[in-house]
Amino acid sequence: MFISRICTVAALLSAFVLCGAEPQIKVALAGSSACQSYEGGLRPKEMAKLKADKSREHEFIYGWGEFVGQYFNSNVKVLNFAISGRSTKTFLERGDWAKLLKSKPDYILMTLGANDTPPKKQSTDIPTYKKNLRRFAADAKAIGAKMIFVTINQALTRSAKNVVVFRPHGPWVKSRVPYSQAMHEVAKELNLPCLELAENQRKIYEAMGEKAAGALYCIRATGKMDGSHTNKAGAELIAKIIITELRKSNSDLKKYTKDPKFQYPVKKAAKAQKK
After folding, report:
1. Tell me: the pLDDT tens digits for 133-169?
2. How far apart are CA 245 and CA 239, in angstroms?
3. Helices 198-208, 232-248: inter-axial angle, 10-degree rounding
4. If we measure between CA atoms, which residue out of 196, 210, 178, 177 comes closest to residue 241?
5. Which residues contact 140 (CB under 8 A, 6 or more apart)?
6. Sign of torsion, CA 237 182 100 92?
């Protein structure tokens, strides 16, 4: 009788494992400050003068890696390895990539590139950038992880009056464009998904207009807008763009996502001038 009960319990547990519980899926994020998770209420040291006041929360810095997890199913765990200032070069040199691989993720969202642009110490030229992307893809494949590239986030320029201005080439830092293009080329070469963040973010900002786009970025302790780093609303917007693009891609990671119910705004046509 006792043995019979043990067998019954074992059978029930087996049925639960086979039919009920889903295996955990690990998604690792490789990026820089735009993706980074910032702990605590005040975020970076340079914002220490700001008080943790909810009415000023729109001034604080947030990374999209803090919000993207809410659009995945409960069995998905997001591991954020993004660190401020990292390029593909320093992500490799400082051991961040090794730590990411050691976590044994099932998928990797790779969005490094903003700090590869010159003239930074950690920057790379386009051939080296492509070489590093190929290295990331090869290493991911070697551990059984699936690589998904994400083009570089937008950074805005501001005027001397501390307001966002859209330059003739668009609301972005122009030097990042060739790197997003290089990422597309490597993804095509390796037959890997490449989510279009850069272009979609640009179109959204243009549809929103300068004032609304500027409101998505944090405020430094000096009181000036930081055109490179988003506040909470800006980070959430980027997370929604990435998930929306992921759900349109051929990556099987999309089956673990939730609908962000996000529609890209349409740029309003200029009103015809009265004669």
Report:
1. 999 999 999 999 999 999 999 888 777 777 777 765 5
2. 10
3. 130
4. 196
5. 101, 108, 146, 147
6. negative
